[in-house]
Amino acid sequence: MTQSLQNPVDRDKKNLSSTSALNAVTIHIKKLYKHYGKTIALKGIDLDVNRGELFGLIGPDGAGKTTVFNILGGVMEATAGEAQILKLPARDARNYTGYLTQQFSLYPDLSVEENINYSAGLRLVPENQLEMRRSKYLKLMQLDKFCDRLAGRLSGGMKQKLALCCALIAEPQVLLLDEPTTGVDTIARREFWDILAGLTAQGITVVVATPDLDEAERCDRVALIYDGQIQQIGTPTALKAALGLQRLVIRTPELVKTEQALLPLVNQEQIADVATYGDRIEVLVKDAKQGEILVRDRLTQQPKPSDDRIDIQWEKPTLENVFTTLLRQKGGVPKFIQFPRSRVRQQESEIINQQTIQNPKSKIQNPTIAICARNLNRIFGTFHAVVNLNLDLHYGEVYGLLGANGAGKTTMIKMLCGLLPISSGKISIAGETGNLRSAQLRQKIGYMSQKFTLYDDLTILENLQFYSGVYGIPPKQRQEKIRWVLSTCGLEKQENLLTKQLPGGWKQRVAFGASVMHEPEILFLDEPTSGVDVLARKQFWQLINDFARNGTAILVTTHYMNEAEQCNRMCFMVAGRKVAEGSASEIKSAQPGQLFELRVGKLQESYDRLREHLEPWRVSIFGDRLHIVLDNPQQELPQVESLLKQANLPLIETEPIAFSLEDAFIGEVQRAGGAPP
Asked: pLDDT value at position 2?
């Protein structure tokens, strides 16, 4: 009788689990095609993913990633080819698969526990196992103290962890995660990826799509997909090695002139690419030594050579270098389209930008200061959202506000925009200290909010016409600027689409275009590239930098640390307070201690062992390596080696490496008291 009442899905899982360990390949895709009418989304994909592998699928919007996930998740059928999970057709393997879509799938009016119980009911989880599983995964996700909190009141990171709990409650053998960390702050993302690594150690196969190539570095293997075809597959290390290029990092006070001198050399002789960031230029070269000689020779030929002030370092290429190089070869990198300006402030902005880079802490007097905030506070009841914050932002400068969810970034921007009254302190915006909501000041400001602010029930063209009118753009200029937005977004001849029909990445592009058509002197961008793919983000930052070089003061928030590197200066916020400020290089070099990369024999066991004895934030998994932060390496490193040796965990290699901006951010935030839940 007991046997006849056993859940058939659960019984089949047990039978399948006993044999799955013998099958190295969990997901098998062969000659997979998918047609949408005349559009061919997938063009004969071949792919195998192994049991217990953390596999990344990366590519631009429209490359076919979500189509692959929908087929593997059993949501749609392929036009042709095979898609198997655990040797079953994907649609028949749904009982063994957990699938997190890009769309938020929780019920905001249900509590954490109620969402999990609902998912468990849908997946026929046996009652006698529900409590044990729920407790297990809530503890794993650090949500066990928030069981009664409504899902709608959770931070972005906690929502994604809860969604993962709901997917895991049926204990699937395969997890499909389509951009699971979009909108999630840096600290929560690192925790999320450490959790994924722990799941794969239990034999769960995880396939994840991500627009962040820093995240993709954590995968065991990645596949680069473009135009419905897989272009390359391999470990991040192997893909970077196969690129055949090295990276020169150039630091100079004259970024713009240096970039202009080097760009003509791209695709000639040694140089493959030149990219400008907030405080440096990165050049991809075939040979580091020969490339440096060529760069220095080129710069000494300039009218005012500054070779003695140029610092050049050799560094390994990144996965983003691999990705953009491939797509450039395929013609997939969007072309930069010059904005049709009616006002020119180029000369002034160049002078200001150079002053800021050379001495970012200098107090440049008005009129070069666009935003000045002194002892700014905002209190909501008993909650102090912004605490005594000081800020100077110059014309021609890109300044980043970085912080975990709830740190006070959006509140700060809303006060500076005049959308939210201040509790105390002083603000000066474009010289205005009184009415920050005046129509005259509004014409000088552009604002792109965290939430999509265009009207879904209007067409793209109607939205752009509306904003042209709101910002008072002269009729003679409107059509030219609207054409620029459509061309930059790649939406020519699609202007009559309703905006709600656009994918998130394209919506963000249109919203950015709408916020800058009136050529603002000051531009506020609150997470402008959330959910936007790598290529679109690159294009975004070309546009942002172009506006800055033409005199616009730009304040931007972002959760992507590789984007934050684009800022001339930035500050880290924790619980409404500024805890660090400077250029990316200054902040990284100011970090105490040393970051080490450890190659170990047993990755997960070593990770668990070290987190028992070190503060958890100091230990993280990066692909097949561990990263640890030690304040006193001479004393602490032997202790780490001893801890692993006592547990019979082999330590193969230890290498000191440079802090990334993500490492610096997490260290500063944790030392200042951590991120809010």
From this structure: 34
